[in-house]
Write a structure and sequence with these properties.
Elements: H1 6-17, E1 22-27, H2 35-52, H3 63-72, H4 80-86, H5 97-106, H6 109-125, H7 134-147, E2 153-158, H8 161-166, H9 171-182, E3 185-189, H10 195-200, H11 206-214, H12 225-232, H13 243-255
């Protein structure tokens, strides 16, 4: 069966014939609750994929690098210690301003996204601009593609359902979808719920979500009942004393 429509399949084939591209993968969008976090995570994911290829020289800084640079600078118009003290309520879990920088450098992806969001809120309040809007991220992606002569980028994002439940605006995602029409950048989103089910929860922005769906190529991937049952069995809690019996019978039960 054909998985993609003919036009999209042709675009992918043409791009692939131009040479080795870049494949980016992300799993889960549970930490995303703003467009800013979406933009920052896209940048970090692309940069990690580039680093795995040995491509570390990126001219334009990412949002993460902008923030770390501002916090680490000894002489900068942005006085981070003063701003931290003024907005200490945004950092109830951090005692000193230098700890924010240390955690930004050492944190895993989810914590880094959270700190980026909080520092950016402080910078917004203090009147300092960041290149974090969707247009800036699109420009950054174009520059990365041009600088490293990358013929194509395919970005796979598994389990993207939470994004639609948590982010109040679809603007950032819509701009990334526009980029797919303007540059060799292919965004493949996987949701573990059908678009129709997600749309039912988008009452306040149902029209925006519908317009978004009109811009993408949707392909359902349904699970066979047996596969679903095998996954479900791992969620069942076995009663005390019945473990051995369950171990003996479970395969036979699911195969019936």
């Amino acid at each position: 069966a054909q998985i993609l429509n003919k036009d999209l399949l042709k675009r992918l084939q043409v791009a692939r014939n131009r040479g080795q591209g870049l494949v980016v993968f992300r799993s889960s969008s549970a930490s995303l609750n703003s467009n800013r976090k979406l933009m920052a995570e896209v940048q970090l994911a692309v940069k990690q994929a580039l680093a795995a290829r040995g491509l570390n020289n990126i001219v334009t800084p990412t949002l993460y690098e902008q923030i770390v640079g501002r916090l680490a600078a000894e002489q900068d118009s942005f006085d981070w210690p003063r701003a931290f003290a003024k907005h200490k309520g945004i950092f109830p879990d951090v005692a000193r301003p230098e700890q924010v920088l240390a955690r930004l450098r050492a944190a895993d992806m989810d914590e880094r996204m959270d700190l980026i969001e909080r520092v950016a809120r402080v910078m917004d309040a203090e009147g300092f601009m960041l290149a974090d809007d969707p247009a800036a991220i699109k420009t950054w992606l174009r520059e990365v593609i041009a600088q490293h002569h990358i013929p194509w980028v395919v970005f796979f994002w598994d389990e993207f359902t939470d994004f639609f439940n948590q982010v109040p605006s679809l603007t950032g995602l819509q701009e990334l979808l526009h980029l797919s029409a303007e540059a060799p950048f292919f965004l493949v989103l996987t949701t573990h719920q059908a678009p129709g089910i997600i749309q039912q929860r988008q009452s306040a922005r149902s029209e925006d979500f519908k317009k978004l769906l009109d811009r993408v190529d949707q392909r359902p991937c349904n699970m066979e009942p047996l596969t679903a049952y095998r996954l479900l069995r791992n969620m069942l809690q076995v009663r005390a004393g019945q473990e051995q019996r369950w171990a003996q019978e479970q395969d036979q039960l699911w195969e019936q």
